[in-house]
């Protein structure tokens, strides 16, 4: 691991990263790879994972792993052990995979909410359980980062179910941080504001209008990637149980 205060990683710093095939996850995979980490990039589409690898400045340190995280949630924690056996003990976990829906609560029942919770919350929990198994992580200095959302903190019409799932992610990080602090394993979350990605562009019909409510304008995937990389790095060695809001000033405007 790099020195305290240093954002650089080494090839021995293996980061398991979900959602690596697009959006925030892809940006984080490329940045962590550039900073020197070995990235095990998880996604559902092998062609898009290959595209992420092609963007990496050190493609030999990016290992694509095709997996549908919600296909068998009960076995997902065991899958982490499979990846560890293939690539070595893990130094970090970044759960960037997720979905967003923008619909009135009247149109979202239990099934729709369950779909959100499966990927946003339950997959995060199962991956963390696998990562926190002493056989799968490097011990002291290991770190987990979950991608949450500003929606969990700032009310907005049409995001009730989504906000509930991301609020659960923030609470999950805080609770795990408390439970694993004695092992010197850190757990944090990042809450992005508006970041145009293929997924958000499909869900929000008024992206341009929303962007006007952000003092610094809309964000970029690289902005969230930088925050996540910081929290995974030794530079954040004394930060755990926190939710880092990255929103261009929206929450304080």
Defining traits:
8 helices; 253 residues; Rossmann fold; 14% strand
Verbal overview:
The chain has a 7-stranded parallel sheet with strand order 3-2-1-4-5-6-7, sandwiched between helices. It is globular and about 45 Å long. It has one domain: Rossmann fold, CATH 3.40.50.720. Strand 5 (143-147), helix 5 (160-180) and strand 6 form a beta-alpha-beta unit. By secondary structure, the chain is an alpha/beta fold. The chain is built from 8 helices and 7 strands; from the N terminus they run βαβαβαβαβαβαααβ. The mean pLDDT is 92. Helix 1 (23-34) crosses helix 8 (221-232), helix 3 (76-87) crosses helix 4 and helix 4 runs parallel beside helix 5.
How would you concisely characterize the structure shown here?
With 253 residues, this protein is an alpha/beta fold. The protein contains eight helices and seven strands, in the order E-H-E-H-E-H-E-H-E-H-E-H-H-H-E.
Principal-axis shape: globular
Termini separation comes to: 38 Å
Query: In percent, how much strand structure appears in the residues?
Result: 5-15%
Please identify the oligomeric state: single chain
- The name of the CATH superfamily reads NAD(P)-binding Rossmann-like Domain
Order of helices and strands: EHEHEHEHEHEHHHE
CATH architecture: 3-Layer(aba) Sandwich
Mean pLDDT: 92
CATH class: Alpha Beta
What percent of residues adopt helix (DSSP H or I)?
A: 25-40%
Supply the number of helical segments.
Answer: 8
Number of domain modules = 1
Major β-sheet, in short?
Answer: 7 strands, parallel
Number-wise, the strands total: 7
Q: pLDDT under 50 segments (min length 5)?
A: none
Q: From the alpha-carbon coordinates, what is the Rg to the nearest angstrom?
A: 17 Å
* SS content category: alpha/beta
Give the strand line-up of the largest sheet: 3-2-1-4-5-6-7
Annotated CATH topology: Rossmann fold
């Amino acid at each position: 691991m790099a020195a305290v205060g240093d954002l650089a990683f080494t090839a021995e710093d293996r980061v398991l990263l979900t959602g690596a095939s697009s959006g925030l996850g892809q940006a984080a995979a490329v940045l962590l790879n550039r900073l020197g980490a070995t990235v095990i990039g998880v996604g559902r589409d092998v062609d898009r994972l290959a595209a992420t690898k092609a963007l990496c400045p050190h493609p030999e340190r990016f290992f694509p792993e095709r997996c549908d995280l919600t296909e068998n949630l009960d076995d997902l924690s065991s899958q982490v052990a499979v990846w560890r056996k293939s690539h070595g003990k893990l130094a970090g976990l970044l759960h960037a995979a997720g979905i967003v829906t923008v619909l009135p609560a009247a149109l979202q029942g239990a099934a729709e909410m369950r779909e959100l919770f499966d990927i946003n919350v339950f997959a995060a929990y199962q991956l963390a359980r696998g990562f926190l198994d002493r056989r799968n992580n490097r011990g002291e200095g290991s770190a987990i980062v979950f991608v949450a959302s500003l929606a969990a903190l700032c009310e907005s019409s049409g995001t009730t179910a989504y906000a509930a799932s991301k609020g659960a992610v923030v609470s999950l990080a805080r609770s795990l941080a408390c439970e694993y602090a004695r092992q010197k394993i850190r757990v944090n979350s990042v809450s992005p504001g508006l970041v145009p990605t293929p997924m958000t562009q499909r869900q929000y019909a008024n992206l341009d209008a929303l962007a006007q409510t952000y003092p610094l304008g809309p964000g970029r995937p690289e902005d969230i990637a930088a925050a996540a990389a910081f929290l995974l790095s030794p530079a954040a060695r004394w930060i755990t149980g926190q939710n880092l809001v990255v929103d261009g000033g929206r929450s304080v405007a």
